[in-house]
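chain and backbone:
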Amino acid sequence: MKALIVCYTRTAAKTTTATTIATTARITATTTIATTARITATSTTTTTTTTTANTATMASTTTVTTITGSPSGAITRTGDPIIGICNTIAGGSTIGGSGNNYPAAEYPPNAIDGNINTKYLNFGDGSTGCYGSAPPGINTGFYITPTISNATVAIGLLFATANDFPTRDPTTVTLEGTNETSTAALNSGASWTLIYNGSTGTTITGSPTGAITRAYDPTVGICNSIAGGSTGGSDNHYPITENPYNAIDGNINTKYLNFGDGSTGCYGSAPPGINTGFYVTPTISNATVAIGLLFATSNDFPTRDPTMVTLEGTNETSIAALNSGASWTLIYNGSTGIDSYIDSNRLTYVSRQNFSNTMAFSSYRLLVTAKRGVSNSVQYAEAHIMGYIYNS
């Protein structure tokens, strides 16, 4: 199964839900948060088959707008230390050993690799060391230690189904967390604190939503550009340390600033900063569906905050086509979530802006159409495009 743990890194933060901090998580078809997490499956769509799936489903009503600090996203990532387990229940010790209950090519790291074309399959009962884990696949899962931070707070799960056999889909799981680090402690039930016991969400049509933009996605800053129009200027109108990549790096202490009018190649982009933005090609997939935007304010000058934007999509790939207005289809024209009159505070994520869209694209173009006040530029710490991977 694929199971991404959705959380945020520890900050001096507040949230409207419980904030269990841990270093490891254990998933046994239910959920976890900590230094390490443990997830184990507790049911499938039938009771006679193996547990399979391919990513993970939001399992919390908490939204990123209630959190001070980092937005919610996957804290699990490729390369995190992960151990497959079986015959294990929440609060119980690990009974089934690792490496003996799944095919070599369908092993636990596939559950967090961000690739929906791979999968984690666990037979459970009937495998060496896993007798008693009946029905097959039940009470199997993994524990994982996220490397993104040694203190994370889990607030959700994001699952994706595998390529075949819907009867193998996990439907409910538990998630536990721990701050223990030794192998003996990680295998001891006494080490784990239950965080979640509920649905994987795999009955949902399509994929659940999260940020489809991420650090280092190919991004080009642009100016003097409007929705439906061609690029008026690119890569020549912002400080080198306040570049477009900062808008999707997940770090609210960096920012993207664009002067627009007055910069070489950007004359006509008035007022300063208006009709500036960027286009980005998400590397998470070559076909994604955008259904929201998540902005964060930068460190200073509230008058530079963008308040209105347009978002367009395209499936063109050449530089010439990406700079041609004819290539782009309008998806959204509206608010960033930043209030036009009341300061949203500095270095703060604002309310996510959701919109209706079912069209899949490979690249997106975001352009600022209004800002809070008179200033020499537009700036923002984050501008994530939210959505899901398109499954044809």
